[in-house]
Design goal:
Blueprint (H helix, E strand, L loop, with lengths): L1 H9 L9 H13 L14 H10 L3 H11 L4 E2 L7 E6 L3 E8 L2 E6 L2 E5 L2 E6 L2
Antiparallel strand pairs: 1-6, 2-3, 2-6, 3-4, 4-5
């Protein structure tokens, strides 16, 4: 996982290509061979476009639950390193993240932030 997180940190943030949702989905694809964000890819290119798309899908939590359930991921109350989740980032609101030993890793325009963000919902990978 550390290799993936380091690469995620070096990659340039690009809406619709390398953002929190698609990085989380890339991790799921690497670990389980399933892409929970397949329906999101190519659907937006800006923050505004992402927000509009999320709203059309019922909001971030509803979208997240639907995407993950559609790929067969089970929720967990005790996320372990390697699991994924929807967490509450204090500056931007809900974001997708990957659980690591130090907390939740979130892809952002600044790179990767790792913190003990509040978990909204998590899935076992």
């Amino acid at each position: 996982m550390s290799t993936f997180l380091r690469a995620m940190g070096r990659a340039t943030f690009v809406w619709g290509e390398c953002d929190c949702s698609l990085v989380m989905a890339d991790w799921c694809r690497k670990m389980r061979g399933v892409d929970p964000a397949a329906s999101l890819r190519g659907r937006y290119r800006t923050a505004r476009g992402a927000i509009r798309h999320v709203r059309r899908l019922g909001g971030f939590e509803a979208m997240a639950r639907s995407l993950m359930a559609g790929c067969g991921f089970a929720t967990t109350q005790a996320p372990r390193p390697g699991d994924v989740g929807l967490v509450e980032h204090p500056a931007v609101g809900p974001v997708f993240a990957i659980r690591c030993a130090l907390g939740w890793a979130v892809k952002s325009p600044e790179g990767v932030a790792v913190d003990d963000y509040a978990t909204v919902v998590a899935w076992s990978v």
